[in-house]
Amino acid sequence: MTSVDINNNNNNNNNSNSNIIETKLIGHKDTVLCISSHNKKEIIASGSDDCTVRIWDLNTNKSIQSIVEGFQGNPVNNVCFDQDFTLYCSYDNIIVSFDLRQPNVILKEFNTQYKFNTEEINQLSFDSKYQYLAACDDSGQTKIIDVTKNKLVESLNKKHTNIATGCVFRPNSKNELITSSMDFSIIHWDFLKAKVLHRDTFKEGSLPQNISKSQQQQQETTEPNRMLNPPFVTSVDCSNNSKYVAISMGDGTIVINEISSFKQYLKINSIHKSSIQQVHYPKYLENNYQRLISFGNYDKKIVIWDVSEDMNTKVSSSLLSNDEKNNERIKTWLEHSEKINCLTTSNLKNNAIFVADLSNDLKLLSIQ
């Protein structure tokens, strides 16, 4: 474990408008792909390209358990805690669970295995009661699993026409789920009936013809106002008051909808110089609907936005340009040293962001 004060380290590539302390959680032997925080215990889990999972103690920032078998030599793409002692992990199209009460430091045997998805799983998500586990995949489908009965209860299919990038349950609702897709849409479901309650489709942009991936990446970095990606939806997250869903898109835009009406609450034409990889409501805030975290795909910039009603009133009544309005909304920003895979927060650790990037080390960013 090493700590760095980003603002005072001349050899670090990070830039920030706040004092950020970076702590490295060292243990994985390859790129960290995913992270999950426990809602009741001061632990987090991380999955890696090294085909293992590690459990970390937030008090010491050290690994206390590792799962080294059960993934058939595959990278672990998703991890998700239940409310007690079980960790669910996915690799390829398979989900396996592990009982963390085992006294062993190294775990090798899983408890349950689910093979309901047909293609690679992109996100795992629990409902508020931790009865239903959602798993969305590359086929565009989302499987709903009742983990108390170990059975598939519903398949949400034939509505998304491309990769399903995200799935999140509406907090404290009985049967509501929101999914996102590369088909430029998000869907609000009654997941127990496989019924579409709302759908929002974002206008498809146009891509230049005959452009290579490297050219696209370079142009995203050097020409922030010329987005080459269409607005495919890359992620979704719900606020803890159950009122809002935040949406990140490939054209660098953030949209927040009111869930009940599915009408647009606000739109941010982002300062990110690339597509936005993820949006996340910080779990450490009691009223987290007032703040939103985002990061870009290639620009490596992490931004904490003020999306409160007071700020909306302020910027909507001003004569500022879009860029100036964005600057008004920004509470904290930093440029990370590596391309980021994902991030999360914990309701048990204030002002802290956990970042999985292309390095082997999990990063804890403490905002001072």
Jot down its keywords.
368 residues, Methylamine Dehydrogenase, Chain H, five-stranded antiparallel beta sheet, 3 helices, 31 strands, 7% helix, 47% strand, WD40_repeat_CS, repeat, WD40_repeat_dom_sf, WD repeat-containing protein 53 homolog, WD repeat
What topology emerges from the helices and strands here?
Blueprint (H helix, E strand, L loop, with lengths): L1 E4 L9 E2 L3 E6 L6 E6 L5 E6 L4 E5 L4 E6 L10 E4 L4 E6 L2 E6 L6 E2 L4 E3 L6 E6 L5 E6 L4 E5 L4 E6 L7 E6 L6 E6 L3 E6 L4 E7 L11 H10 L10 E6 L5 E6 L3 E6 L5 E6 L6 E5 L10 E6 L4 E6 L2 H8 L5 H8 E6 L4 E7 L2 E9 L4 E6 L1
Parallel strand pairs: 7-11
Antiparallel strand pairs: 1-3, 2-28, 3-31, 4-5, 5-6, 6-7, 8-9, 9-10, 10-12, 13-14, 14-15, 15-16, 17-18, 18-19, 19-20, 21-22, 22-23, 23-24, 25-26, 26-27, 27-28, 29-30, 30-31
Question: Would you kindly provide a written description of the structure presented here, covering whatever features stand out?
Answer:
WD repeats lie at residues 27-66, 71-108, 116-155, 159-199, 228-267, 271-315. It holds the Pfam family WD40. Residues 207-231 are annotated as: Disordered. The strands form seven sheets. Strands 1-3-31-30-29 form a five-stranded antiparallel beta sheet, with no helix packed on it. The chain is mostly beta strands and 368 residues long. The chain contains three helices and 31 strands. Mean pLDDT is 89; it is low at 6-14 and 205-227. The chain has a single domain, classed as YVTN repeat-like/Quinoprotein amine dehydrogenase (Methylamine Dehydrogenase, Chain H, 7 Propeller), CATH 2.130.10.
